[in-house]
Amino acid sequence: MKNNIRVERAIKNLTQEELANKVSVSRQTINAMEANKYVPSTVLALKIAKVFNKPVEAIFLLEKSD
Amino acid sequence: MKNNIRVERAIKNLTQEELANKVSVSRQTINAMEANKYVPSTVLALKIAKVFNKPVEAIFLLEKSD
DNA sequence: ACAAAATGTAAAAAATACTTGACATTAAGT
DNA sequence: ACTTAATGTCAAGTATTTTTTACATTTTGT
Question: Which residue, of A23, A40, A57, B39, has the greatest Cβ tally within 10 A?
Answer without folding.
Answer: A40
